[in-house]
Design a protein that fits this description.
A four-stranded antiparallel beta sheet has the order 1-8-3-6, with no helix packed on it. It has a four-stranded antiparallel beta sheet with strand order 2-7-4-5, with no helix packed on it. The termini are far apart. It is an alpha+beta fold. Strand 4 and strand 5 form a beta hairpin.
């Protein structure tokens, strides 16, 4: 009879190893002698919070409570959600929120864009995922500017878990223009 014991440890930074810090010591290593968080850290966290709020507080375009099937489900094409993009809008992030109350169903997906009504659907480069889970934020390599009327963005579920033959439901699907995070 063989027994195997595995130990999992948090990877420490060089500073933590040099100072032999463990547990809660790592959490307070940079605090002042008063035990308070330094003003420079507070300012940085507040700036990041402001940046996130400015980026994701208001979408360029968004849809809510969308239901569709993954590719192959009841002869579905896999298109779950489609948004019509406003003319001259710019976006560099797409946020997808899956309704997981009945379980996670999306196993893989891609995002596609069509310029104008007659354009072909083109997969966004470097934007495809294996799962959505509760929420996924896909950052585009560079902003996309909408230059043609009635251009569209769509979410395509390429494979999914269709337990009990239920479709996929997205709580929300939207495009956003982010602002740069503050520098350190």
């Amino acid at each position: 009879m063989h027994f195997f014991i595995f130990f999992f440890f948090k990877q420490k930074t060089a500073y933590e190893m040099l100072r032999s810090l463990v547990g809660s010591e790592m959490c307070i290593r940079d605090s002042s002698s008063t035990g308070l968080i330094e003003d420079s850290y507070v300012s940085l966290v507040e700036a990041v919070g402001t940046s996130v709020q400015q980026s994701f507080g208001r979408s360029v375009v968004e849809a809510n409570d969308i239901t569709g099937g993954c590719a192959g489900y009841e002869s579905q094409s896999g298109v779950v959600a489609q948004l019509t993009l406003p003319m001259n809008a710019s976006f560099d992030a797409v946020v997808t929120v899956e309704d997981i109350r009945l379980g996670q169903r999306i196993e893989s997906y891609r995002l596609e864009i069509r310029h104008g009504v007659a354009g072909e659907w083109i997969a966004l480069p470097d934007v495809h995922g294996l799962t959505v889970g509760r929420k996924v934020v896909d950052m585009l390599p560079s902003p996309i500017v909408v230059t043609e009327e009635r251009s569209s963005l769509r979410f395509v579920c390429t494979s999914g878990k269709n337990q009990d033959f239920k479709p996929v439901t997205l709580k929300s699907f939207g495009a956003y223009l982010t602002v740069p995070l503050p520098s350190v």
